[in-house]
Amino acid sequence: MKCRTLIIGFALILACASASAQTVISAKQAGESIEIRNVRSDVGVISGEIVNHSRYEVRNVELFIQNIWQWKNEFQPGHDDLGTASYYTVEGMIPAGATVPFTYRVRTTPTNRTDGQHETMVSVVGFSEIIPYR
């Protein structure tokens, strides 16, 4: 099974100890803060690691997990849509510079067929960065 990691982030929420502020940053900036690596896909289970490259703790990293069906003959694909997509939140704090594992159990088991293969992609769509008040 072919796995590819797509590092992309869409939103970052900045919070201070005494007051809370929200800032949306670009996907490039978010991708520099949070990295998804070592993605593995086995029957019904997708796992990998989240790396916090930020100077601050992050929490509640939201992942977008796509299981894309690639037909062997894309000029004449079948009638079934075998792809799936899910959101998964990795709750809890990830300290600055730390790496934490994640495991997602797919609700439906991928179809085992010979006319194509699944490709798994995991991307970051949101997280909160905790910036201490000074």
Description:
This protein has 134 residues and is mostly beta strands. It has one domain (2-130): Immunoglobulin-like (Sandwich). Helix content is 5%, strand content 54%. It contains one helix and eight strands; from the N terminus they run ββαββββββ. The protein has one helix spanning 27-33; strands at residues 2-5, 12-15, 34-42, 45-52, 57-71, 84-94, 99-105, 116-130. The strands form two sheets. Strands 1, 2, 5, 6 and 8 form a five-stranded mixed sheet that branches. A hairpin with a 2-residue loop joins strand 3 (34-42) and strand 4. The longest helix has 7 residues, at 27-33.
What are the salient characteristics of this protein?
1 helix, five-stranded mixed β-sheet, mainly beta, three-stranded antiparallel β-sheet, 134 residues, disordered N terminus, Immunoglobulin-like
The CATH level-2 architecture is identified as Sandwich
What general outline do the C-alpha atoms trace? elongated
Overall pLDDT score: 77
CATH class: Mainly Beta
Note the main sheet. Answer: 5 strands, mixed
Could you spell the SSE succession in H and E letters? EEHEEEEEE
Indicate the proportion of strand residues.
over 45%
How many separate domains make up the residues? 1
| Structure class | mainly beta
Taking all Cα atoms into account, the compactness measure Rg is: 17 Å
Q: What's the tally of helices? A: 1
* CATH fold node name: Immunoglobulin-like
Please count the beta strands (DSSP E, at least 2 residues each).
8
Query: Uncertain spans, ≥5 residues at pLDDT below 50?
Result: 1-19
